[in-house]
Amino acid sequence: MKDSLYTLVKNSKTDNNSLNTVIELFSPKIVSSLNQTNQQDREDLSQEIKMKLLFCIRN
């Protein structure tokens, strides 16, 4: 059974597998948003967004 996003985020506070799943779920939106930026900035921005997501979930 697939967990809901709420459950995954809740579990992500202590479980790295859940956190990876959340990041994977948001990856298509991140990529879509990054396609609107300069190509040379995309990798750095992707890392920044994922770090922000991690910070928001864990705190």
Plain-language structure description:
InterPro entries: HTH_dom_conjug_TS-like. It holds the Pfam family HTH_16. The longest helix has 19 residues, at 16-34. By secondary structure, the protein is an all-alpha fold. It is built from three helices and no strands. It has one domain. It is elongated.
List keywords for this structure.
single chain; 59 residues; mainly alpha; 3 helices; elongated
Short overview:
The protein is 75% helix and 0% strand. The chain is mainly alpha-helical. The model has no long low-confidence stretch (mean pLDDT 94).
Radius of gyration of CA atoms, rounded to a whole number: 12 Å
Number of distinct helices: 3
Shape descriptor reads: elongated
What is the string of SSEs from the N terminus onward?
HHH
What proportion strand?
under 5%
Helix coverage percent: over 70%
Q: Termini distance?
A: 27 Å
The tally of beta strands, per DSSP, is 0
Question: Averaging pLDDT over every residue, what do you get?
Answer: 94
Pfam family, one: HTH_16
InterPro entries: HTH_dom_conjug_TS-like
Protein name: Helix-turn-helix conjugative transposon-like domain-containing protein
Domain Helix-turn-helix conjugative transposon-like: 7-58
